[in-house]
Amino acid sequence: MSEPSYGHREGGHSVSQSQERLAELAAEYDAKDELRGKRAEFVLDDTVYLDGNSLGALPAAVPAKVADTVAREWGELRIRSWTQSGWWTAPERIGELIAPLVGAAPGQVVVGDSTSVNVFKAVVAAVRLSDGPAAGRDEILVDSATFPTDGYIAESAARLTGCRVRALPVGEMAASVGPATAAVLANHADYRTGRLHDLPGLTAAARAAGAVTVWDLCHTAGALPVGLDEHGVDLAVGCTYKYLNGGPGSPAYLYVAHRHQAAFDSPLPGWNSHAEPFGMRPEFEPAKGAVRGRVGTPDILSMAALEAALGVWEGVSVDAVRAKSLALTDFFLRCVEAYVPEGRVVSVTPVAHAERGSQVALECADAERVMGELIARGVVGDYRAPDVLRFGFTPLYVGFAEVERAARVLAEVLRG
Ligand SMILES: Cc1ncc(COP(=O)(O)O)c(C=O)c1O
Ligand SMILES: Nc1c(O)cccc1C(=O)C[C@H](N)C(=O)O
């Protein structure tokens, strides 16, 4: 992973940095920031918005696109829009916009439903792609610190497929996959701590053991290179409302590697998964390709918002986003160390770049009240029970001066 070129390195913090010096540095980094022009493509105010790891900010192109979809495509063209406005093919067309952001060649990503629903499709399909319980593969390995929905759905998928769930810390999974493992479900980054997990290593270990991997990319897609094809991932899912800025409840996506598409057996075969949906035939014949991961009618208004939102990626390299993300989180940790009274917060986000996503999580006594105070003072992060302050850094619109301000305000709140 390449070092950011913003002039400082992890581990190089100095507690004696003065506020003036850090403010100067922030200005220097902002001046050098090759992504700084992107901020103008979002609707933002002078709030420091560090919650893009939960809901990304509104891209400025979205309102007009949604208005046109409502007024012209729906209001005037009505039913004709399924073909004339490209509504019917939106799931695969928008999938192609997401594909390069997660390192997938065309034809493998389809958009639709929520992440939760796609976790269900993928985990059941993963068990069906494996040798399965009849051949002694009856274990689904799950990340024990997972975002809850993945764990709940894995349990249900296990009951439906005759498997059992074994929950383990992600770091122990690679050494634990074995001849009984059918599927492995893991988060690429931990939603609470921001820890980045070893996707290449765990994927390779699972493959060597004959298991099928499902990665949840909610906290990494749009923040760092994922490399789905490069690392031989089998199946993946993710949401689009965090670093992809698709809007509240925007549709999620499902990745099915080319080599699995012919055998991908969705547990939710709807008429949109059919090879000939308008044939209206009683027998199910799956569509070819990732399209068989579709289920029912696409939610066009949300898709319109998402499609417009993805326009901000024009000319942006994910490597540049990653370099800035690491520089932002490094700088935040450095400012927190310089400003915050000793012992008031403890970072639970790894210092090593290879283990860090795009958020910083600070354990803090009275975290819920502290976050309320921060928000009241114009610094928006979020709080996760029982004691974590989360700050998400979206490189497309967060700048270094904002990072310095966030740490300064945090220190003011903590000093009382
Ligand atoms: C890692 C992870 N997986 C799944 C979800 C749930 O997604 P959804 O509510 O869109 O189904 C979230 C966030 O809500 C998440 O952070
Ligand atoms: N999806 C959310 C929602 O509908 C309301 C509030 C928050 C969310 C989130 O996405 C939470 C987020 N996945 C998390 O990492 O905590």
From TrEMBL:
<dbReference type="InterPro" id="IPR010111">
    <property type="entry name" value="Kynureninase"/>
</dbReference>
<feature type="binding site">
    <location>
        <begin position="147"/>
        <end position="150"/>
    </location>
    <ligand>
        <name>pyridoxal 5'-phosphate</name>
    </ligand>
</feature>
<feature type="binding site">
    <location>
        <position position="241"/>
    </location>
    <ligand>
        <name>pyridoxal 5'-phosphate</name>
    </ligand>
</feature>
<feature type="binding site">
    <location>
        <position position="115"/>
    </location>
    <ligand>
        <name>pyridoxal 5'-phosphate</name>
    </ligand>
</feature>
<keyword id="KW-0378">Hydrolase</keyword>
<comment type="pathway">
    <text>Amino-acid degradation; L-kynurenine degradation; L-alanine and anthranilate from L-kynurenine: step 1/1.</text>
</comment>
<feature type="binding site">
    <location>
        <position position="216"/>
    </location>
    <ligand>
        <name>pyridoxal 5'-phosphate</name>
    </ligand>
</feature>
<feature type="binding site">
    <location>
        <position position="116"/>
    </location>
    <ligand>
        <name>pyridoxal 5'-phosphate</name>
    </ligand>
</feature>
<keyword id="KW-0662">Pyridine nucleotide biosynthesis</keyword>
<comment type="function">
    <text>Catalyzes the cleavage of L-kynurenine (L-Kyn) and L-3-hydroxykynurenine (L-3OHKyn) into anthranilic acid (AA) and 3-hydroxyanthranilic acid (3-OHAA), respectively.</text>
</comment>
<dbReference type="GO" id="GO:0097053">
    <property type="term" value="P:L-kynurenine catabolic process"/>
</dbReference>
<feature type="binding site">
    <location>
        <position position="297"/>
    </location>
    <ligand>
        <name>pyridoxal 5'-phosphate</name>
    </ligand>
</feature>
<comment type="similarity">
    <text>Belongs to the kynureninase family.</text>
</comment>
<dbReference type="GO" id="GO:0019805">
    <property type="term" value="P:quinolinate biosynthetic process"/>
</dbReference>
<comment type="pathway">
    <text>Cofactor biosynthesis; NAD(+) biosynthesis; quinolinate from L-kynurenine: step 2/3.</text>
</comment>
<dbReference type="GO" id="GO:0019441">
    <property type="term" value="P:L-tryptophan catabolic process to kynurenine"/>
</dbReference>
<dbReference type="InterPro" id="IPR015424">
    <property type="entry name" value="PyrdxlP-dep_Trfase"/>
</dbReference>
<comment type="subunit">
    <text>Homodimer.</text>
</comment>
<protein>
    <recommendedName>
        <fullName>Kynureninase</fullName>
        <ecNumber>3.7.1.3</ecNumber>
    </recommendedName>
</protein>
<dbReference type="InterPro" id="IPR015422">
    <property type="entry name" value="PyrdxlP-dep_Trfase_small"/>
</dbReference>
<dbReference type="InterPro" id="IPR015421">
    <property type="entry name" value="PyrdxlP-dep_Trfase_major"/>
</dbReference>
<dbReference type="GO" id="GO:0005737">
    <property type="term" value="C:cytoplasm"/>
</dbReference>
<dbReference type="GO" id="GO:0030170">
    <property type="term" value="F:pyridoxal phosphate binding"/>
</dbReference>
<dbReference type="GO" id="GO:0030429">
    <property type="term" value="F:kynureninase activity"/>
</dbReference>
<feature type="modified residue" description="N6-(pyridoxal phosphate)lysine">
    <location>
        <position position="242"/>
    </location>
</feature>
<feature type="binding site">
    <location>
        <position position="271"/>
    </location>
    <ligand>
        <name>pyridoxal 5'-phosphate</name>
    </ligand>
</feature>
<dbReference type="GO" id="GO:0009435">
    <property type="term" value="P:NAD+ biosynthetic process"/>
</dbReference>
<dbReference type="Pfam" id="PF22580">
    <property type="entry name" value="KYNU_C"/>
</dbReference>
<keyword id="KW-0663">Pyridoxal phosphate</keyword>
<feature type="binding site">
    <location>
        <position position="219"/>
    </location>
    <ligand>
        <name>pyridoxal 5'-phosphate</name>
    </ligand>
</feature>
<dbReference type="GO" id="GO:0043420">
    <property type="term" value="P:anthranilate metabolic process"/>
</dbReference>
